[in-house]
Amino acid sequence: MDNAFRTADFDYEYPPESVAQHPLADRSSSRLLVLDRDSGTIGHRSFQDFPNLFTSGDVIVVNTSRVIPARLLGTRQSGREAEILLVHPEPDGCWLAMVHPGGKLKAGRTVYFGSDACAEIVGIVDGGLRRIRFSGALDVSELMEHHGAIPLPPYILRPPDPNDRDRYQTVYAEADGSVAAPTAGLHFTTEMLHAIRERGVGLVEIILHVGPGTFRPVEVEDPSQHTMHVEWYSVPETTAQTVNAAKERGSRVWAVGTTVARTLETVAAESRIAEGSGWTDLFIFPPFEFKIVDALLTNFHLPRSTLLMLVAAFAGREPTMAAYQDAVASGYRLFSYGDAMAVL
With 0-12 CB in 10 A as exposed, 13-18 as middle and 19+ as buried, what is 101? Predict the structure, then answer.
């Protein structure tokens, strides 16, 4: 094997009832596990204590991508149901998408959305994705508004409800494009963001549009053989300047979520980042040398997932897995609507 760790090294057990099926009434009332990656010390706090972890001069980076109602429910020519999960648009106007039932939706087949629009499967690409061309009275944004639903993760065992349109978004979400939320940011309220700024902390933004590959487990024994789906990112000039200034003066750069960590490390050169946009398929797993991220806020992630492997690359595999065991034993709520973890 090319890698020192096997995928099984990132496995753990959890009771099904620990998976959060609904968000808490108050975003900031989640629990917060704090892991010191040098000592391995674990602390338990409320997320409302999160601003107290900062030092004046720190910089926190958030992902302002917004989840789109990308789960489209239509019918096949036979009248039976079909589902299309949009992934991202292509330059020629087509979309890449996941479909169900996959065996029935081959090239040349069509999915209908009432009399408003239809989607033709024009090709099959790597990973079983489909290239889809839409036509009809509605454009894609209107089609999502009329026939789309928020694509909740597969471990949330209920259909989306109206509350999810708001709660499966961060309070600072602006740029439409994700099919899964950057969930570390779901805990913030506007009041907390203000409190963080009041502590002399710089808050800057990036965009990374999260694709469905975020839920895809690593199925090969050697993680280095896993292929990531590409995701689009953008790093503004002001973000690059603020992060670079923090690194120069020795202040910490906080990544809110694995999406931010991947983006910052994608555009890193030594201890600086560059502005720009593009596509990233960066897979961060142990061992990995982080050039930019000094502290990480994240949720708890699925076993054998690329997200858990990124956390383990940052905090160390053994401290990370020990923290997960502690969280499960302490009754933490897991995954997208669950509790948070800060790694210092």
Answer: exposed
Residues 207, 128 share a domain: no
* Sign of the dihedral defined by the CA atoms of residues 259, 265, 267, 272, in that order: positive
Regarding whether 252 and 134 lie in a shared domain, the answer is no
139: number of Cβ within 10 Å: 11
Model pLDDT for residues 204-225, shown as the tens digit of each residue: 999 999 998 777 789 999 999 9
| Number of domains composing the chain | 2
Strand partners of residue 60: 203, 254
- Residue that finishes a domain, picked among 94, 119, 149: 149
Residue keyed to tokens 């109602």? 69
Three-state secondary structure call for residue 259: helix
105 found inside a domain: yes
CATH at residue 34: 3.40.1780.10
CB 116 within 8 A of CB 106: no
* Alpha-carbon torsion angle 170, 166, 147, 280, nearest 10: 10
What percent of the chain is modeled with pLDDT above 90?
89
Domain-ending residue, one of 149, 173, 208: 149
Residue 40 zone, left/alpha/beta (φ > 0; ψ -120 to 50; rest): left
Amino acid letter, 98: M
Residue 105 CB-density burial (10 A; 0-12 exposed, 13-18 middle, 19+ buried): buried
Bond prior to 287 in cis (omega within 30° of 0) = yes
Dist. CA 57–CA 200, nearest whole Å: 6
Q: What is the dihedral of CA 219, 309, 68, 238, to 10 degrees?
A: -140
Instruction: Please give the structure tokens belonging to residue 138.
Output: 């509605």
